[in-house]
Write a structure and sequence with these properties.
InterPro entries: S53_propep. By secondary structure, the chain is an alpha+beta fold. Helices cover 16% and strands 15% of the residues. The chain has a domain of 67 residues. Strand 1 and strand 2 form a beta hairpin.
Amino acid sequence: GLAARSPSKDTFTVHVPAWKARELLNADLGVYEYKRSGALAIRAAEYSVPEHVSELLDYVGPLTLFTAPRAHRSDIAGAHVLSEKLDNAALFAKEKIGDLSVD
């Protein structure tokens, strides 16, 4: 079933048994092992969905992603605050607000 949804509601995670994923995605699933880490992953070379469903989907992943998994780590410990007064909405606005200089 539906396991998670992104805050923007444009991405969601669904957990289903492999047999159900194979059925829903018309995919030939296989279990693959990454040589370096020994991690196992269920993957498929390709998948397909009915046309009326494909119009609503951009990507089903990481089903067809065969690259080795990487550890996710944050570099926040080495970061420093540039300004307490920056407005996130302004930072991501489409129009140019002005030049931001950083020493």
